[in-house]
Each structure stands twice: as structure tokens, then as C-alpha cells.
Amino acid sequence: MLGFALASSGCALSLRGEDPKVATMTIEVPASQSLILPEPGGPSVLTVLETRYLNALEQEVVLGTRSTAPGQNSFHVIFFGPIDGRTGRDNYRKDDRLSEESLADEMEEVLPGVAMHTSTFFVQNRYGPFGYAIGRAGSNDLCIYAWQRIESQVSLSPVSRDRGVLTVKLRLCQTGATEQSLLGIMYRYSINGYYLPRGWQPYGRPLPESEGLGRPGGPLTYPTGIQGDGTVLDGYMGPEPVPPRPARSRSVSSRQETLDSGPPSTPIEGYPTVPAPQ
């Protein structure tokens, strides 16, 4: 009887329908939950693919593409720290330190067939220094691959260090772009996320104001912006051109001379005579 019952249950299980399970930890989340955002007017955010690990939250922020180069523009960001709804201990995200070998492999994977040239210039945005490489894909497409590691340099607490780490990587190709316009995406992106535990934030202690700022004898401060020195009235493009004054016609000049010379002493021919007031 026991064997018959087990056989019957096995048949019942095999006949019952069940949907297959998706074998991935990656899900699509709304763009409003993106950990990183381009500047207003920059590339549009199409979708955000998110993967949760035991020790990190990883997102691929897919950006709009205007390029003939194969591949998808995107920000790739990893936020290391305490994650809500953590999985098993085998689902652990390794913290890959930036190295020339790993970066070369990544560029070859996301920019196939594009010869990338690594910059030797020091560049820095408001989150710290970053590195980048530039390459040309086709005749009129320019590509950038940029990378940045953000972690606390000066801890908020005097007794413990900040343990949070944030890595950002950008792959962007655009038709008709310049190196400066592509770099502008790295200069002006915003991080849209933080951890509530103070010890896990990756930004560190904010920098103090420059010594002497706002005091007599303090440093000189000029009206500079992203585009360089500027003035309030003239703007960044220089003073407005002064429109040329139109030349006065001969009739207007003669009429003005007549008005300037005062009223005529004799009646003007063709006009009625107006008697003087009594």
C-alpha cells in the first residue's frame, strides 16, 4: 500500500504544470532607483538592471545610444556594503581592484574592435580622481571608457574607518562627439544613493572651506565656472555685438535741420495760414 501511494504521488507531481524559474539574480528596477544619474540634458536612462549580492548592490544603468559602434552605452556601478534581503554566503561579490590587465580585458569586451588609448592626464570630478581611455569607432564615432573608485580618505569617526566602497565605470560611444563632450559625462554625473549606517558611506569627511575664505586677507576668488572665466554682463561668449546705426536719409536730415532752425517766418506754400492767437 505504501509503495502504491508513493507511485501515485509521483504521477500526480509529474502531471501538474509548473512555470520554469529564471536562473538569474538580476532584475529590472525603475529608473528612479538608479544609483547614478547623468547630468540633466545628458544621455537618457533607458533601464536599470540590478543584482543583489551578500555584500554589494550592482547596477547597470543602460543609457541611450546615438552611435553606429556595436554595443550598449551604460554606467556600471557597484555599491559595497550591508544589503537588505541578502542571499546565501556563496553569492559574494568580489572587490576587483583596478589594474591595467583587468581594464584592458573590460575594454576589449565592451568595445570590440575599437583601439582604445589610455589617457595619462590627471583628471578629477567632485568625487575624486578618475581614469579614462579614448578610441575612435568608424569615421565619426568617438568612444570613452572611464573608471573611478570612490572610498573614504578621511573617516567621519575618529575611532573607526569608513568601510563603504563605490566603483563607477562608463562605456559611451557617440556620433560626432568630442573628447571634451564625452569627459563632461564623467565630470557632471551624480550619485543617487547612500547607506544609513555612517560607517558604510564611501565619501568620507567633507572638505573644510579654504582657510581665510570670507575674511580680510583671504584668498582671491574670481568668477570662474565650468567653461572658464566669465562676466555677468558679457557672458561666456564675449560682449554682444553692437548693431550698426542706420544712415539717415537726406530728407530726414533736411527736415531735422528745418525743425532745429525754429518756425518759418513766412507761410509754407501749399499749407493753410493759421492766424496767431489774440
What is the structure about, briefly put?
The protein has helices spanning 2-15, 100-110, 179-187, 250-260; strands at residues 26-29, 36-37, 45-52, 56-63, 74-80, 116-118, 123-125, 128-137, 141-151, 165-175, 190-191, 224-225, 228-229. By secondary structure, it is α+β, with helices and mostly antiparallel strands.
Q: If you had to describe this structure to a student in words, what would you say it looks like?
A:
With 278 residues, the chain is an alpha+beta fold. The chain has one domain. 16% of the residues lie in helices and 26% in strands. The protein contains 4 helices and 13 strands. The chain has helices at 2-15, 100-110, 179-187, 250-260; strands at residues 26-29, 36-37, 45-52, 56-63, 74-80, 116-118, 123-125, 128-137, 141-151, 165-175, 190-191, 224-225, 228-229. Strands 1, 3, 4, 5, 6, 7, 8, 9 and 10 form a 9-stranded antiparallel beta sheet that branches. It has a two-stranded antiparallel ribbon with strand order 2-11. Strands 12-13 form a two-stranded antiparallel sheet. The longest helix has 14 residues, at 2-15. It is extended, with a radius of gyration of 34 Å. The N and C termini lie far apart (140 Å). The mean pLDDT is 76.
